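Risk register update: the risk of archive-format incompatibility is retired. Evidence:
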Amino acid sequence: MEWSVLPDESKREVIKRLDFMSRLSIKDDKCLVVVYTGIDKFLRMEISKGENGCVIHKMENSYDLKKAIVKVFTESVPTVLACSILRNLFNYESTLIGTFELEFDTCNFLSQINQLERILSVIGSKAKTGSSQFNVKRFHANWMTSLQIIDACHLSLFNCMVLEEVEREGIVWETESLTPRITMETSKRYGEQIIRLNDIYMAERRADCRFKMVEKAMETENGYTTCRWSKIQDVFLWDHQKITSERLNKDVEMKRVVVPQIDIVTRWNKSKCGVWVHIMKMYNEKKYVNFFKNETCGLRYLCEKCSDPFDYWFYQNLPRRIHHEPEWSDVGILSQDANKDTKDIEMIENAMKLKKKFQDEDKKSKRKQKKQKKSKTLTKKDDEFNSWGFGIQKKIEMDQLVKSTAQMSVHENSGEIIV
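Archived output:
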């Protein structure tokens, strides 16, 4: 049974029983809401201003507006309507959102403040309709989002007892690869919570990688910088460090390099999965040494073997937003300065070249599929799919859940917006 034909009460019951990733992208006159329920499975709503209110284009596992179901609501502010939808889907104690992603399309702080006020009028501890903080494990914002805005979301939108990770990230559009090649991030840990600022690169950038790592580490007072490489061949970087290694645990070998002139220590790590490096000011090393010793794979979502299947799929396909949904690809970095709306010409050109590469790849793939007489053998059983936070789930169980909730009695419309 399709989501669109479920009664409102049934949708709520399904939401309560599953773990999701939610995405909210905001522009001045329109919003995008996406709820991911598994690999290649998502509910998508584009909300824009119309003559008689807000127009919602609803899609399921599709980016094609021509195939959308269209609804009109009297609410005149897209952000308010988008947040009302999210509130009525997720505002339950039993509902756990794996990741909540927030995107702005401008670096202008005043514009972000205005949008945040609209969000907080509907969701969060100060909402007009009463407190409605979400149970979110991970909060991700795009590179343009002000750190002050992130702090405000952290405190007001989400249940701090549940929140484990806050991350601001962006992709540097490059044409060397169609998937993430390197990630470089700064991390700070506060008890069980971790805060990251992460840049994703689609090229090796071998020449300036070391300089950028040191620069970031020097700027990080109470944390550390990590660089992760996506290919096992990158282990030569670890081999290049001509010093004796030590074994941290059964999975990881480490080479420790100290640069006393600038008070920096570098920890090169190698496992069967690949190579990654932590770099920090020397006085910070003791704070994180226990975490480093217990780390078995430091590649995060770059590792197909160790990461959550949804995480891996999501980040492998994140660059494809420039192809599938260019209007909503604000995760892509187009400026050298996150505090200004000026755009770098070279970065824009790279984005267009990358989009063309994805288009060409899709055309080749479609031609190949037409030539094939038999479909490829599926690597997974037809009745299984990967769901955020759950690993493998039985599709038949999902179908039964939908059918059972569809049979429930539907309460009278209470004025809530469920789409």
